[in-house]
Design brief:
By secondary structure, the protein is mostly helical. It has helices at residues 3-22, 29-49, 58-84, 88-99, 107-115, 120-147, 154-162, 165-175, 183-194, 196-207, 217-241, 246-256, 262-270, 275-304. It contains 14 helices and no strands. It is globular.
């Protein structure tokens, strides 16, 4: 991992937490930063790196891995619910917080920092065709089922997918964007893409929550361990089974070990599904991942070598 990238991650996270504690930013600043990332930085990253992607069968494995891991999550969370006698809301919170990794907001910057720019196109495939598509379909079905709402219609699901800006950037990148655009375009997109890491970590620092009642420590520990340790451990043999090797395998396992997706947890909170637990899993999984992800990248590199 590049030391300067890791130092920047830690610095921006610490600054965000400091600014939040001192109340230097107005309420909702983290949401504004997230929107900038969503509408500007993420599409720029997609347009920069996806045209360099070489299509092969291993990309299908990147797309299906999150779905297979969600099936494993369902079984593991159901088992934990029975053993710990968790409530329905806590069960749903674990499904969401373990099943959906932060494969874009944190995944893209971390993959670039740990593996390099050349690995980012694979992270985009994992995120867009895997995690994002799953959240936009299965995710909203899970939320509706456990919050007592009616199951969303196919039209509602399609509209939700169509309103996601990076998806349009992905379609353009796959069909019309040249791998080597004019310098003024490529340079601008690169700078916007580079802004993603500091903005994301500042936003995380502003919104991170680590406090939780003692009685919820057990489901918190289950959520963090499953998300950061069990999921990448399952992804490794799965990657081999799906015919992956080299950098594609490394990205697949690393993305599977990312912390909880902030957007998924926020949706669970908005549906009143154990909101304190969701917020805590997001916070702790991000903090702990700053140690687990470099270790995971080192282990993958050693395995490949």
């Amino acid at each position: 991992m590049a030391f300067d990238a890791f130092a920047l991650i830690l610095a921006m996270l610490a600054l965000g937490m400091l600014f939040a504690r001192l109340r230097l930013f107005p309420d909702g600043s983290a949401n504004v930063l997230n929107l900038v990332v969503l509408y500007v930085c993420l599409p720029a990253a997609v347009l920069t790196f996806v045209p360099r992607l070489h299509m092969d069968r291993s990309l299908l494995g990147l797309s299906v891995t999150p779905w297979i891991l969600m099936a494993a999550t369902w079984g593991l969370v159901t088992l934990a619910t029975r053993i710990l006698k968790l409530s329905r809301g806590e069960h749903a919170a674990l499904l969401v917080c373990v099943g959906f990794s932060n494969s874009s907001f944190i995944g893209y910057p971390m993959v670039r920092a740990l593996l390099g720019d050349h690995a980012l196109p694979y992270a985009v495939v994992y995120d867009q065709f895997g995690t994002f598509l799953m959240l936009s379909t299965l995710g909203i079905v899970i939320l509706a089922r456990y919050s007592g709402e009616t199951t969303p219609s196919a039209r509602h699901v399609l509209l939700r997918i169509a309103k996601f800006p990076p998806l349009w950037a992905l379609l353009f990148a796959l069909t019309a964007m040249p791998a080597d655009p004019p310098k003024w375009i490529g340079g601008g997109l690169q700078r916007l893409s580079d802004a993603m890491l500091p903005l994301v970590m500042l936003s995380v620092g502003l919104s991170i929550q680590l406090r939780l009642p003692r009685r919820e420590f057990k489901p918190l520990a289950v959520g963090v361990v499953l998300r950061l340790l069990v999921m990448p451990l399952l992804a490794l043999p799965l990657s081999y089974a799906l015919g992956m090797q080299g950098e594609v395998l490394q990205v697949n396992v690393l993305e599977s070990g990312m912390p909880t997706m902030i957007t998924a947890a926020a949706l669970a909170i908005s549906h009143d599904l154990a909101p304190r637990l969701c917020a805590a899993i997001v916070g702790y999984s991000i903090v702990v991942s700053l140690a687990t992800l470099p270790l995971l990248a080192w282990a993958l590199h050693a395995l490949a070598g």
